[in-house]
Amino acid sequence: MTAQTAERDLSAVIGLEVHVQLETDTKIFCGCSTDAADDEVPNSRVCPTCLGLPGALPVLNEGAVEAGVKVGKAIDAEIPEETSFHRKNYYYPDLPKNFQITQYDAPICADGELAFRVDGEERTVNIRRAHLEEDPGSLQHAGGSIDTADYTLVDYNRAGTPLMEIVTEPDFRGADEVRAFLAKLEEVLEYLGVFDASRDGSLRVDANLSIVDSKTLDGDDISAALEDANRTEVKNISSHRGAQQALAYEETRQKNAVRRGREVEQETRHWDESRGITVSMRSKEEEKDYRYFREADLPPLRVSGWKEEIAIPELPDARRERFRGEYDLSAESASKLTSTKQVADFYETVAAEFDSDLAATWVADNLLGELNYRDMQVTDVEGRLDEFTRLIDLVDGEAITTKNAEEVVLRRMLDDGLAPDAVVEAEGLGKTDDNAVLAAVREAIEENPDAVDDYESGEEGALNFLVGQVMQATSGSADPGTVNERLRAELDE
Ligand code: ADP
Ligand code: ZN
Ligand code: MG
Hints:
Elements: H1 3-9, E1 10-21, H2 62-74, E2 82-83, E3 86-89, E4 99-102, E5 109-118, E6 121-134, E7 138-141, E8 152-155, E9 162-168, H3 175-192, E10 203-213, H4 222-228, E11 231-237, H5 240-259, E12 267-272, E13 277-283, E14 293-294, E15 301-302, H6 306-309, H7 316-326, H8 331-337, H9 341-353, H10 356-373, H11 385-396, H12 402-416, H13 420-427, H14 434-447, H15 449-456, H16 461-473, H17 480-491
Parallel strand pairs: 11-12
Antiparallel strand pairs: 1-9, 1-10, 2-15, 3-4, 3-14, 5-6, 6-9, 7-8, 10-11, 12-13
The structure holds adenosine-5'-diphosphate (ADP), zinc ion and magnesium ion (MG).
The site of zinc ion has 8 residues, from loops.
């Protein structure tokens, strides 16, 4: 068999364990704040509980459980009658207790799914379970890398931040699918208001990949075959792009090994972002290594009924469909306008007051375009949405020209933090009144006899030149249509 045919016969199989930080005010088992300031002092946002001091007891944060239920509803998962916590034992300095409080046999969510689009096609990935746990502290390896550092610093500020670990079935067949899935997952979590993608390290992925004979994927019961396949678990992935790159690398590495007749070792590997490669860390630990046992300090929690009681907002796919119908938008506009919940909410506020097409142009094209250009988000101007409505009002009421609104007012609003009326005032953009336009028209005619001659001998281009002269004389504040009309009226007299 040639290398090429062998290549075609091999398939990548990927399953993910995605850790997302849940947005709550306080940590999952203590009252410490989760609000991490950029310049905070290491080990300042801690207490006896999240430091694991002897005798300190955990108290479960209801908000974290509610967030977990919201995620469960969004991924169409089953929420059990009762959920409970376990201790996962391991010795590593990021966890001062030497165990992590997590969930084991009664996770808050089981058997969910998430649909997403990749290359124009819809795919659905099954979600085996999603459980709550505490984030460990963070380690900083002095000098950079985990295997070469002279020493390591530890900061427990992050310890105890609520995490949800979302475990998928091995349903992915390529790195591109993983990237699209993660983008969709983030979008849904942000809509739910339980997640902040802009927060550093708020999403971390462990990615499992194995290479199997493509034929096994056509079989009826592929799970047994996948169970037997040797896989690697790649840790330390903290972005969509990182996941895609790490998995593409791993797929090639394993395929090469298989093609050369070598066995892929079952192991844990580390994604080295700066070098763009995965490196072997240790042989993969097994479940029994963790000596799971019940967390006796936290009683089981009855959550029956929570699923009905806790409401979630309309999710992105549903909202996109509704926007297309209700506001008669193109698929592209609807998609842009629902890209985040804040954008969608803002669009609906504007569309309630103005024509839905005008609202779409202003929000999707003008506002998002200018924000994007400045690397800003709608959340950065959240407190100023009234000002943007006022800007659209000025255009809609023809107090300023569309061109000035887009190119001067909106830009100065974003660059200088000015209100629209202040920009109009400062730049003298109020539409010039009729007398001033007429005076400018007459002046242009008087000063450009050649252009007037050309116009009179039938050269239409000469009129455009004169319009340009008038626009310049009025600093762009005249309406070009009106200028055109006035010029013709004067010239044709
Ligand atoms: P472990 O007990 O080693 O943690 P699990 O069965 O809990 O393994 O699965 C962990 C992750 O590995 C899941 O995301 C799952 O989808 C994935 N996985 C399982 N089998 C495979 C495979 N053959 N190839 C790739 N990923 C797999
Ligand atoms: Zn604490
Ligand atoms: Mg597991």
